[in-house]
Amino acid sequence: DAGVTQSPTHLIKTRGQQVTLRCSPKSGHDTVSWYQQALGQGPQFIFQYYEEEERQRGNFPDRFSGHQFPNYSSELNVNALLLGDSALYLCASSLRRAFEQFFGPGTRLTVL
Amino acid sequence: SQQGEEDPQALSIQEGENATMNCSYKTSINNLQWYRQNSGRGLVHLILIRSNEREKHSGRLRVTLDTSKKSSSLLITASRAADTASYFCATDAYDYKLSFGAGTTVTVRA
């Protein structure tokens, strides 16, 4: 039973660039949430996708956008990267927006 | 901003000892969960306790919840080296947004 997978594992970008991170949910799950975790901090909720629509959003600017595909996989896009966007980006999946979530290993983004 | 706040920030114990960490939160919640994170990688769900529950057990884990004090505790009994990790509490308020604290880093010494 495949767990949550994320790609790429690591990514280095420069300020002003754009990045796309990808997530495949755990088998059987239909809901994907994205989190940003800065070094030494807990994860911060970015948004949640269910039935291909953004259902909830945290306090993140419009530079952060996402998409969910019919196969439930998801992408996180960040435009106009800032140094402060350097973080571990975590994807979590659940079934029908259940509160218990299953996390992927994360993508480490470094912005130079 | 983060809803939960774990205490202590760091904890070092001997293998076989118990580890206790606490979580305080600010607003009313629906559920409180505890997650473990090894070496800055993905989080692993440990246990979920609902707002109408006071105590829950899972293996060597015991979680309590006191909604009047807006606090929870996680007890790990008979700790092992593999328990070395960061532990986070996460709350939700019926809106599917999980709000995490900054975590407690636990080191289990052999």
In words, what does this structure look like?
The complex is a heterodimer of chains A (112) and B (110). With 112 residues, chain A is mainly β. Chain A contains no helices and eleven strands. Chain A has strands at residues 5-7, 10-13, 19-24, 31-37, 44-50, 53-57, 64-68, 74-78, 87-94, 102-103, 107-111. In chain A, strands 2, 4, 5, 6, 9, 10 and 11 form a seven-stranded mixed beta sheet that branches. With 110 residues, chain B is mainly beta. The A-B interface holds A 4, 33, 35, 39-45, 48, 55-56, 58-59, 88, 90, 92, 97, 99-106 and B 1-2, 4, 30-31, 33, 35, 40-45, 48, 88, 90, 92, 95-103.
Q: How can the largest sheet of chain B be summarized?
A: 6 strands, mixed
Strand content of chain B: over 45%
Measured between the Cα atoms of the first and last residue of chain A, the distance is 37 Å
Number of β-strand runs of chain B: 11
Structural class of chain A: mainly beta
Radius of gyration of chain B: 13 Å
Helix content of chain A: under 10%
Question: Which H/E pattern describes the elements of chain A?
Answer: EEEEEEEEEEE
- Structural class per helix/strand content of chain B? mainly beta
Counting DSSP E segments of at least 2 residues, the number of strands of chain A comes to 11
In percent terms, what proportion of residues of chain A is strand?
over 45%
The first-to-last residue Cα distance of chain B is 36 Å
In the predicted model, the low-confidence regions of chain A spanning at least 5 consecutive residues are none
Question: Per the principal axes of the C-alpha atoms, what is the gross shape of chain A?
Answer: globular
Helical coverage of chain B, percent range? under 10%
Question: What oligomeric assembly is this protein in?
Answer: heterodimer
Q: Give the integer mean of the pLDDT values of chain A.
A: 95
Q: How many H/I helical runs of chain A?
A: 0
